[in-house]
Structure prediction request, 219 residues.
Amino acid sequence: MDVATFLTIVSIAAIPILFAITLHEVAHGWVARLFGDRTAEMQGRLSLNPIRHIDPVGTVLVPAVLLWLGGFLFGWAKPVPVDPRNMRDPRPNMVWVSAAGPLANIAMAVGWAFLMMLSQRLELGVAGAWIGSMAAVGITINLLLAIFNLLPIPPLDGGQLLSNLLPRGPAVRLLDAVRPYGLFIVLAMVAIPGLLATLIGPPISYLRGLLMSIFGLNA
Prediction:
């Protein structure tokens, strides 16, 4: 990829990606606070300022390198601190805390779809084309983050959901045993060509098509 193309893509993708990552993390902390855990709030992590959530490697370096190489766009932010011990009913409360991030991404995808509809219906010229391109990235990146994070691999949100939904027993112990290696499993999935796209591509395509249909959008 040449430098001009790379910078053009960054100018379109930076805002949707930062919003997607930031609000995903803030949603976890906000719901945790509703259930009595103020850890994220006390550490200043309920802020909408993306700088408070940026991981230099996971939010900047890794996505930039993958984008430059034309590979699968992947990254992460600093996890919002959550302490279940402060919650009134930790296991059921953590179900909602874990689900909050993906649900926030789904809500943002809907918001970007609405913005894309406006950009296609209003006569905004070059600005409309730029907003439409940014909205398209916003839809895709938010659906990607939602579905990816629901994979049942700890420490992803899907793994946390399973740990708190399943009755205590062998299944939960297995998830706890996998937890220290979860990041390496995820990185391996990203590294194996086509594997992650095969797993999460179909639900992303289905949800994107559904949004396009609901809002009457052109592909």
